[in-house]
């Protein structure tokens, strides 16, 4: 057993946000259990792990311990052989009070198999699901409803991957991106759950740092959050994925980074847009990169926290239901965002704007409101620039680039 203990100070935090504690693992070790204890008053410490060959998991501040074994691992960590050699426990000094924080890390190898988490039975598929909403689309395409920002037990969410899939079905969604924080351990479960529940589950990860969060969508492999955002963008592109700046205006987790290039997507609509009469997220988007494609994300974690899954809803005009076709739609900017799945919708179609179930609302472009919508399906001039559907009081209900 290896034990590290002491006090991390504010100077330690200012010198390096991540501390590395060595653990020597002997040949024949079947499982490794690590526990972090610390005084929580005014402190937040994150937890993760590197093996001799690289990344083995991250749970941030969501857990105080983890187990890695060949037959399984604590959510957020990668199961597999426990390689002999030098391992490193990563402790992130997220918040350290002026007087420091006392800590103790215990790493205990085992010769027995231990996954660290009892299997949770997958829920049965719902007997029925809300009917798909058929929106006007070009031949060979369909507008799919989804959420591009959600979490599971693999980071700080409440549900397993199958439970999240069931929730998404019940809310009438066609796809969900599962973007757990700084890990890809959930990716191994997505394909089976997608088949079982007939929904598209997009692999993703939320690269999470004190200076901002970014979603990397796609099966790109793990993206090292300790690198800079330009490196994240390079990694996303090498892996055939897409990077999105998440909740750029969101209190203490707003986007503070500078970049050499701009990612293709920006999460303009997030639950932290608390008052939909505000134009703050739109102003940030236009200042950051008007050419960036806007998307929405609920950032769903659990009932009663953040926003319900699919609130807002991102619509993608897609030639198919697989992740590749959805990505093609995103890259091409064939997107729309609505406050909810069944609310008013604004689309671009054949050079025109189409407003669905928007009778009495107001159409606004980059220069402001300019036309009242009449009827449940209205064709409107397709002027350049992003457009929104507003209530007479100025509340945004739908957006299209």
Structural notes for this entry:
The chain is mostly beta strands. It folds into two domains: 2-110, Jelly Rolls; 142-342, Metal-dependent hydrolases (TIM Barrel, Alpha-Beta Barrel), CATH 3.20.20.140. It has six helices and 25 strands. The strands form four sheets. A 13-stranded mixed β-sheet has the order 16-15-14-13-12-11-10-17-18-25-24-21-22, sandwiched between helices. A five-stranded antiparallel β-sheet has the order 1-9-3-6-7. The protein has a four-stranded antiparallel β-sheet with strand order 2-8-4-5, with no helix packed on it. β11 (175-178), α3 (187-197) and β12 form a beta-alpha-beta unit. α2 crosses α3. The protein starts with a strand and ends with a strand. The mean pLDDT is 96.
Could you give a quick summary of the protein structure above?
By secondary structure, the chain is mainly β. It has helices at 10-15, 161-170, 187-197, 229-238, 280-288, 323-331; strands spanning 2-8, 18-25, 31-38, 44-51, 54-60, 65-69, 72-73, 85-95, 101-110, 142-147, 175-178, 200-209, 212-217, 242-245, 265-270, 293-297, 313-318, 335-338, 345-349, 352-356, 362-365, 368-372, 377-381, 387-390, 396-400.
List keywords for this structure.
401 residues, mainly beta, Jelly Rolls, TIM Barrel, 2 domains, 13-stranded mixed beta sheet, 5-stranded antiparallel beta sheet, 25 strands
Give the CATH architecture of the largest domain: Alpha-Beta Barrel
Proportion of residues in extended strands: 35-45%
Number of strands: 25
Q: In which order are the strands of the major sheet placed?
A: 16-15-14-13-12-11-10-17-18-25-24-21-22
Which regions have little confidence, pLDDT < 50, spanning 5+ residues?
none
Q: Under the CATH scheme, which class of the largest domain?
A: Alpha Beta
Structural class: mainly beta
Total domain modules: 2
Overall pLDDT score: 96
């Amino acid at each position: 057993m290896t034990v590290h203990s002491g006090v991390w100070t504010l100077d330690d935090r200012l010198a390096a946000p991540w501390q590395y504690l060595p653990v020597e693992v002997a040949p024949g070790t079947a499982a490794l259990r690590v526990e972090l204890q610390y005084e929580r008053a005014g402190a937040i410490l994150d937890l993760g792990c590197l093996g001799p060959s690289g990344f083995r998991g991250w749970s941030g501040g969501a857990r105080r311990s983890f187990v890695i074994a060949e037959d399984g691992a604590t959510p957020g960590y990668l199961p597999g052989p426990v390689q002999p050699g030098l391992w490193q426990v990563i402790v992130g000094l997220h918040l350290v009070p002026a007087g420091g924080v006392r800590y103790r890390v215990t790493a205990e190898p085992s010769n027995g198999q231990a996954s660290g988490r009892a299997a949770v039975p997958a829920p049965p598929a719902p007997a029925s699901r809300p009917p798909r909403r058929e929106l006007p689309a070009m031949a060979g395409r369909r507008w799919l409803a989804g959420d591009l920002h959600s979490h599971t037990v693999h980071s700080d969410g409440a549900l397993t991957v199958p439970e999240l899939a069931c929730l998404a079905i019940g809310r009438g969604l066609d796809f969900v991106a599962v973007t757990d924080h700084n890990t890809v351990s959930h990716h191994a479960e997505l394909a089976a759950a997608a088949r079982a529940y007939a929904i598209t589950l997009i692999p993703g990860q939320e690269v999470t740092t004190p200076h901002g969060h970014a979603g990397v969508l796609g099966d790109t492999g793990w993206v090292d959050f300790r690198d800079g955002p330009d490196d994240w963008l390079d990694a996303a592109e090498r892996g055939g994925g897409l990077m999105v700046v998440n909740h750029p205006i969101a209190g203490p987790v707003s986007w503070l980074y500078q970049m050499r290039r701009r990612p293709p997507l920006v999460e303009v609509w997030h639950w932290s847009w608390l008052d939909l009469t505000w134009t703050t997220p739109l102003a940030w988007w236009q200042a950051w990169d008007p050419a960036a494609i806007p998307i929405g994300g609920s950032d769903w974690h659990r009932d009663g926290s953040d926003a319900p899954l699919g609130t807002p809803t991102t619509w993608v005009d897609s030639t198919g239901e697989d992740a590749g076709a959805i990505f093609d739609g995103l890259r091409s900017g064939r997107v729309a965002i609505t406050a909810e799945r069944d609310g008013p919708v604004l689309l671009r179609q054949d050079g025109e704007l189409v407003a669905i179930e928007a009778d009495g609302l107001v159409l606004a472009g980059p220069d402001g409101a300019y036309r009242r919508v009449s009827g449940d399906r209205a064709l409107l001039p397709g002027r350049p620039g992003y457009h929104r559907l507003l209530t007479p009081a100025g509340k945004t209900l739908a957006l299209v680039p």
